[in-house]
Design goal:
The protein is 55% helix and 18% strand. The chain contains ten helices and eight strands. The strands form two sheets. It has a five-stranded antiparallel sheet with strand order 4-3-2-1-5. The longest helix is centred in the N-terminal third of the chain and has 30 residues. The N terminus is likely disordered.
Length: 295
Amino acid sequence: MLLGLLEEGQTEAVTEAAETASQSPFQAFLEDVRAYFTHAGMNIVIGLLILIVGLIVCKIIKVVITRIMRRTKKDEAVIHFVASLIDVILKIVVLVAALATMGINTASIITVLGTCGVAIGLALKDSLGNVAGGMMIIVNKPFKKGDYINAAGTEGTVQTINLFNTVLLTIDNKEVVVPNGVLSNSNITNFSAMPTRRVDLEINVAVDTDLVKAQNAILAVCGAHAKVHSDPEPFCRMNRVANGAIVFTVRAWCDNADYWEVYFDLQEQIREKFNQVGVVIPFPQLDVHVDNRTD
């Protein structure tokens, strides 16, 4: 009988050991959590305090880093990105420290994350790509806050570079959020990168116009404008004849900030100058011939 009890005890022990060995990492994690809440004491309170105080410290550190970087006159977009990245890293450290203090086996959490690593990696692929894209933007510096850019099918003034996206403000005051991953992999045209910019215009005149008179009138307007540069000097030449009109190509250089003012001013002033010197600006015409013959 004693032998039978021993054999039965050994069988149960073997069965229990086999069941324990067959548990998945997630089941082991749940067992740890259940055991923890059964035997936990003041560790929960201490862990919560670490979490609360740690989050407050993270916020203070973020503010301090932001102020220090502003004193070094870093770009606002770079400051925002770096502060956000450091804030996320510190919060992860605080969370892990709080869980460890509470007695939760962080190794089990890491094991679960490792087991689900493929699924998590696929789920966060785009988010991680956006973070990497943001880092590439910060390192390569294709633009900064306040620059007017065209990229990823949209254009606007850069407002902020966040951890996952960049915010643009369009000229009609719309906010566009562009993922950093898409932005870093697209062609970027930065209209604000250079201190000067060229204004390109096409001016039409009638086909019977004196070309020298029209050309001199256009160059006189460009030369008289206070914000048009004399070096490089304004350019004006006949380009082609199209749709019953002679087309002049006009190029003038100005400061980047004055581009739109010069763009519209030149067109208005050239129109007024043409009226003064008698240069005709053509308009679309349709010639209709009526055949009165009868069969």
